[in-house]
Design goal:
The model has no long low-confidence stretch (mean pLDDT 91). The protein has one domain (3-107). The chain is globular and about 40 Å long. It has helices at 13-24, 28-31, 86-89, 99-107; strands spanning 3-6, 34-43, 48-56, 62-69, 82-84. Strands 1-2-3-4-5 form a five-stranded mixed β-sheet, with helices on both faces. By secondary structure, it is an alpha+beta fold. The two termini are 12 Å apart. β3 (48-56) and β4 (62-69) form a beta hairpin.
Length: 110
């Protein structure tokens, strides 16, 4: 199960990895260790924001990446996964107010 939303809605796993590699200046080989569970990208004319929840294929640990950009800079070098515990991901604090993502992620553990 995966949830890709916004400007990456309908992307395949390969297309999403390529998009992240290109936009974040990240090596595709480094990204291959992650399974993308949630991807949300919103690009406007001059700025954008993105959120990713990824799972390390080897350890099963979850990580979040939040990034944004303005008209002067892109997402370059913002791929910095931060560990997200299962307790946090299953809590009501995770994505409070963003019911679609919260429900999806909670369903990963049921």
């Amino acid at each position: 199960m995966k949830l890709f939303m916004g400007d990456v809605s309908g992307y395949s796993d390969g297309e999403l990895v390529k998009w992240v590699a290109d936009n974040f200046n990240e090596d595709e080989g480094n990204l291959s260790k992650y399974e993308f569970m949630v991807a949300q990208v919103n690009e406007d004319s001059y700025d954008g924001s993105s959120y990713f929840l990824v799972k390390n294929r080897e350890t099963g640990e979850f990580f979040e990446v939040n990034a944004s950009h303005c008209s002067c800079y892109g997402y370059e070098d913002q791929w910095q996964p931060k560990i997200a515990s299962r307790v946090y991901l299953q809590s009501n604090q995770y994505m409070a107010g963003w019911e679609e993502v919260q429900s999806f992620v909670h369903s990963l553990f049921n």
